[in-house]
Design a protein that fits this description.
Elements lengths: L8 H24 L10 H21 L2 H7 L4 H13 L9 H21 L4 H28 L16 H15 L7 H20 L3 H16 L4 H27 L5 H14 L13 E4 L5 E2 L5 H30 L4 H16 L13 H5 L1 H7 L14
Antiparallel strand pairs: 1-2
Amino acid sequence: MKPPATGGAGTADRWRNLLCVGLMALIAGMCVLPAGASFNPGKPYQYVLVLSLYLPALTLGFVRFERWRELGRRPLMPWLMALLAWSTLSLAWTNAARPLDEMLRILSVLVFLFAWMHGVGDDPRRQRWLLVGGAGVLAATAVAAMVRFAIHPPADGRVTGFGVMANANLIAAAMGAGFLWLWPWRFRTPVRRTLKWLAMVVMMSCLVLADSRSAWAALFASVFVLLAIRNGERAWRRLLGLGVVGLGVAAAAYPELSERGWSFRPQIMQYAWRLFEQHPWLGMGQGARFTIPVQGGMGMDQVHTHNLFTQVAVELGLPGLVLWSAIWLALGWRAWRHRDDVIGRVVLGLWVFASVMLQFDLPHLIDSPRPGWLIIWLPLALSLSLPAAPTDRPHTR
């Protein structure tokens, strides 16, 4: 992928640097900026993203429209464009309170992918700077969240973050993403290697304290796969060790884990299927409001299906479900084919993590930037950096 030219290499680099800053702001803003109702991004976060990411990306796209066509020609993008177009069309029959907000959410996803392609692309330095830097921000957030947890333990005993991460499942998803961003990278100096493992331990500790069973299972599955694709006796010893530790932890924690049961997931799934049967072809529309009469731990009815694929089926019907399932499976296949590349391993780890966690939590596909973006849209953005065919040499620097 060639860097965009807007009047010289220096100007192109400035645009790319600006987009990189905006992408980092998207990650950092989740950690520190205040949220609105239901953990939606607050106005300060939205203003930061508009100024640092959306406006620069849109300006770059309008300077030369060919850049949008270049994005549309990347692997998986034609199918994703079709999904976003169908989501936009579904606004004609949705009962969403503010359809314009849903339109802006669809646009924000597209602009994010555009910004990643033209701000980061296949430049390994920018890829590393964003992923390692973002993981560092998440690690610092984990420390702050755990300190607050130790000083003022919440009633439910689960650590939460700040802003859009002020929920146990949301911070668990973010910490799992940061852990997997760091996992494949190699650092040459002992100090950097120590900092890497310290950050990973901090994020894993925060994830554990969040007491999100779906995140626990997702991270275990991701690490298992990343170890399994390695060659050599040492990798197999680690894989065996991980299996033994996982079984031991599961056995020790079984009484506590089983106490919460299935958290009404089978009943929610049953009602979600009924909603899908009512609108199988068109769905209820992007951002549709509905209620599932199953009361959770808060004593309130559910307003989503707690499963990404059933949520897509309810909102976007069978066309949306088929398109998204095809995109997600193709993304996993691309990541597997590029597993010898460091970015391929990052995408593969995130894909496995999301494939497990999204069965139980974080059900919204098209939404404002929140932790779900880090395990859904970020892997898709990273896949834009992968070549059409697998590389012969692993890229591990």
